[in-house]
Amino acid sequence: MDYPIWDLAMGGGMLMALVAVPHVIVAHFAVGGGLLIAVTETLAVRRNDPELRELAKRSSLVLILISTVYGAISGVGIWVVAGLISPGAISSLIHNYVWGWAIEWVFFILEIVAALVYYGTWDKISKKAHLMVGWLYFVGAYGSLVVINGIITYQLTPGKWLESHAFWDGFFNPTYWPATLLRTGIAVMMAAAFMIFPAAKSREAGSRLVRYIGGWLVAGSLISYVGYRWWETQLGETTRALFLGESPTLATLAATRSFTLWALAAALVLGIVFLMIVPRSVKAIVPGVLVMVAAFAFFGGWERLREGSRKPFLIHSYQFSNGLLVEDIERINSMGLQAYTGWMTIEGSQDPVVVGHQVFKRQCSACHTLGGYQSITKVLPTFREMVDVAANDPPGSGAVAYQVGCASCHSDTAYEEMVEFMPGPEEMQEDPEMVLDLLSGMITGTLDQLRDMGQAYVDADRTVQFDTQTTAYPMMPPFVGNDEDLEALAAFLGTLTHDGGSPISMGGGR
């Protein structure tokens, strides 16, 4: 089944990031906080340490307010947003893992009920019974993590599932155990970060408790590092090539990896200095905030890296980022995208630009917006940029303009080679329509190349992960559709090279 597109000016991916990143930070605090609070109270009871027990009590309030309230609400928000921007992917996840989600919901109910009982029964039931409730909370929270982790990691490394489509083959995929270790470390880091200030609040034992939290942060950081390195080794070569090596396919993803590791190093160093060496420094608030920001930055960076590493798929080698299935390529190429979707021709317009806009929404808008995040207009060269490339005035500026406006699509063609095929700047100024025709031809040629790329997916062995590095555009799905769909999309994209007006009057602006 195909679904209409929810068109967002900011892009669905950006909205998902805004909703998901804060949620996963809080959700992992819910897991790590459950462990840290349960251990803290257990130690307090055994050692008869009232300050340590008071820390567990204060932290449980933070857990209730942040995790149980915001975490639950934002979790629902993720389902709503994901269902609107990627309904096909959500459908696939539910059909393949409905019982996994059911198990996770059972754990989640246990987690919520235990959290409320735990906080509401301080000094009202025996310490032994209260500890049991705290450990039940952790079991529910951690059980939720390990189940969701299996479903999330299967999207990136489905492994044997591609051949068998069996529940457990997808669940225990190549990155399941590394990601479980990594997320366990992250959960401990998030818990320690959130509990810095409850620990610092104690007047009599503040430094001792802050050092105690610092030990947890350091441990979580080291576990996270080991888990990350293990996770990275279990990725397929085609995935690692996106962000590793001398010439990574996606430079932005390589930068994300670098940012992620530096943020982890910063969290570790700041934790040692501010929490363990000079614990009283967190009384000034700023040092504690710096530790928190570094920890959150590491986790956010890894989530960005993990999501980006799936390109061009939602479920690797099975479903593309635009929701189309690999197995449907031939059928859609034969019948046409408009016949396949049905909803594209509801308005009945025959204008190829209007139809092309609908094709753009279906094929491209999952990753590209018109003028916002991942703007498609920034990829398409304008008349002014074409003139700048050809004129090369002052000397050297042409190569810069080519690198900015053209190299992303013509990575296999050097600036000097491209200039030989281009008309001169004077010729462009005298005949701007010729430039538009040239741009249209370039767009059509690229779309033809993207459609031809689909045949590699059709011919590939679908029981193993596809090597996207063998394609011309490893980070992009192929164009899928018939000649009419392709021509319509080319017509629409052609209007974006000059904002629908004269390229000379627009001066190359967007």
Please give a quick description of this structure.
This protein is an all-alpha fold. It is about 70% helix and about 0% strand. The protein has helices at about 10-45, 50-85, 85-120, 125-155, 160-165, 165-170, 175-195, 195-200, 205-235, 235-240, 250-275, 285-310, 330-335, 335-340, 350-365, 385-390, 395-405, 415-420, 425-430, 430-460, 485-495, 505, and strands at about 315, 320.
Largest sheet: 2 strands, antiparallel
Which segments are poorly predicted (pLDDT under 50) over 5 or more consecutive residues? 499-510
Topology as H/E string? HHHHHHHHHHHHEEHHHHHHHHHH
Helix and strand content put the structural class at mainly alpha
User: How many domains?
Assistant: 2
What general form does the structure show?
elongated
Helix content: 55-70%
Your description of this structure?
With 510 residues, the chain is mainly α. It has two domains: 12-310; 327-506, no CATH class. 69% of the residues lie in helices and 1% in strands. It has helices at residues 12-47, 50-85, 87-120, 127-156, 161-164, 167-171, 176-194, 196-200, 206-233, 237-240, 251-277, 286-308, 329-335, 337-341, 352-363, 383-391, 397-405, 415-421, 425-430, 432-459, 483-496, 503-506, and strands at residues 313-315, 319-320. Strands 1-2 form a two-stranded antiparallel sheet. A hairpin with a 3-residue loop joins strand 1 and strand 2 (319-320). Helix 1 packs antiparallel against helix 2, helix 1 runs antiparallel to helix 4 and helix 4 packs across helix 7 (176-194). The chain is elongated. The model is unreliable at 499-510 (pLDDT under 50).
